[in-house]
Amino acid sequence: MATLNQKILQWASGHVGKSVGAGECWDLAESALKKAGAGASSDFGGPTDSDADYVWGDEVDLKDVLPGDVLQYRDYEMTKTTTTTVTFADGLESEDAVETTIGHPHHTSIVSKNTGAGELTVLEQNDKGHHEKVKASVIRWKDAPIKETSTRKSMKRSDNGKMELATVKVTTDVSVTGTITAYRPKAP
What we know:
By secondary structure, the protein is mostly beta strands. The protein is built from 2 helices and 7 strands.
């Protein structure tokens, strides 16, 4: 017999590419838990208003989340900075940094995978506030170790436009702020 978490994940996974309920993030979790026979936020005293931090069962530590657990975000931001440094043999160097931020001031999602390294794959909808359909996304609940890679390849020089062998170093830094609370679904 499938567990509540398995039933929740199976139901939510079956709705990837679709919109659930009114298309709000809350609708996906509320519907998945109810269809699985678990208590939903409405069974645990909420939602009291559209900005409430909902309760979805028993709170669990993020490192212990399982597929089918529900995440409640508050003022969450994950910022990824990728810096590329190109260095030629004569010392000419150029650097470019690109920063992307994913923000969830108030959001709900369902865990589909826990890698055990601070990274989770979640199922969510309305992740940008425009009633986006259910999709899988990767998030982090803690900062990632800085990752560096270095390769040698032919690059165009900025001073004379010629192609020349250079060392290309790519540094990736991922930082997380805000709060994510994880809940293990349970019977109502």
